[in-house]
User: What shape does this take?
Amino acid sequence: MTVIQHPIVFHLLGIPVRDTVVFTWITIGIIVLAVLLLKLMKPNLLEMILEMLIGVVDDAMDVDDLHPYIPLLGSLLVFVLVSNIISVVPILKSPTADINTTIALALIVVLSVHVFGIRKKGLWGYLKEFASPIVLFPIELIGQLSRTLSLSMRLFGNILSGDIIVAIVFSIIPSFLPITMIALSMVSGLLQAYVITTLAALFISSAVEINVEDLRIKAEKAASKKLKKMRKELANG
Amino acid sequence: MDNLSQEAVVVVVTTIVAAFAIVIGTMIPTWVEGVAAQKAIEGMARQPEAAPQLRTAMIIALALLETASIYVLLIVLVLLFANPLLPLLGG
Assistant: This one.
């Protein structure tokens, strides 16, 4: 089946380039062109799309300041969305129907979770919260791995299964019926883009959230210590 | 079965197992997803003001449940198109 295979298209400086890479370049080109055109013709529409992106991210995260996270999550949403529905065009294939693309995206998400966490709490603070209690540290590590795996496999499996179903239906009944399947796979591509962005936002917000209860306990301890000190000073005169 | 080669037996058994796997592996997650969506929609009907949060939570839960059937699909695809058992016969 041609849906599953990814042939080498050409060699660039001795490095074999598969068709997924070419389709990724086409996707990036489409996004850049669309944004430039919208900026020139209809800036209002572009602003509306940006508001929508911020809304999607804002629904999933409960942090005070969204600004550091919008560039990553917004571009993730736009890229996954466009590359999911690019396979509607007959010659093109979705870049996300290749496991390499989705694993790259999942690795970016999982590593950036730690980067945001460390940036917010500092290295030591983040590690301390990551491994508390210390018994759960290995399970946390396994959790990071399975998070990467499930993020990438979910996107890959959904998009690939949509493409395969379209190909099978097309080989049985080549007229009209594939349109419904293409529409279905477009809807599922839309949903998957939303889901991967929401999950990434959830992971990041769980890494950067500061435990309010811990802060309260710490403040109470400090206050009681201060009170004791003052009492001692008073007793000493 | 005597006139079948070893490869043919492996291919036939793998195909039958793959068919069973995809049937069971899509049936059960779909059923569970139906239960999850039913509960979420009941909650939305009872408290319409909490509908947006419920919808987001429902979509995330459905995506997570969907992962199970996606894993089954990937295993079935590996069994059908890149069977790991066939090279073992050659050695």
Residues 129 and 163 of chain A are 42 Å apart (CA to CA). The longest strand of chain A covers residues 8-12.
